[in-house]
């Protein structure tokens, strides 16, 4: 499982750097939650708030009220 996770993580980082305008801001928990939201539909809080414009990538990954 750890090898699979390492490959998934490297793929997420690669895809993010290809698609994002400012990929350095998408890191750590925010990157993980974003991909979980996109791929699995779980923990969609970040995705919903980003879509509504209530949070931004500049706020980082420690955001008050994350459910």
UniProtKB/TrEMBL annotation:
The organism's place on the tree of life at top rank: Eukaryota
InterPro entries with a match to the protein in the record: 6-PGluconate_DH-like_C_sf (IPR008927), 6PGD_dom2 (IPR013328)
UniProt-recorded name of the protein: Glycerol-3-phosphate dehydrogenase
Taxonomic source organism: Musa acuminata
């Amino acid at each position: 499982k750890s090898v699979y996770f390492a490959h998934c993580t490297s793929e997420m980082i690669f895809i993010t750097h290809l698609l994002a305008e400012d990929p350095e801001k998408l890191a750590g928990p925010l990157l993980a939650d974003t991909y979980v939201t996109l791929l699995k539909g779980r923990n969609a809080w970040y995705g919903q708030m980003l879509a509504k414009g209530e949070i931004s990538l500049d706020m980082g990954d420690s955001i008050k009220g994350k459910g």
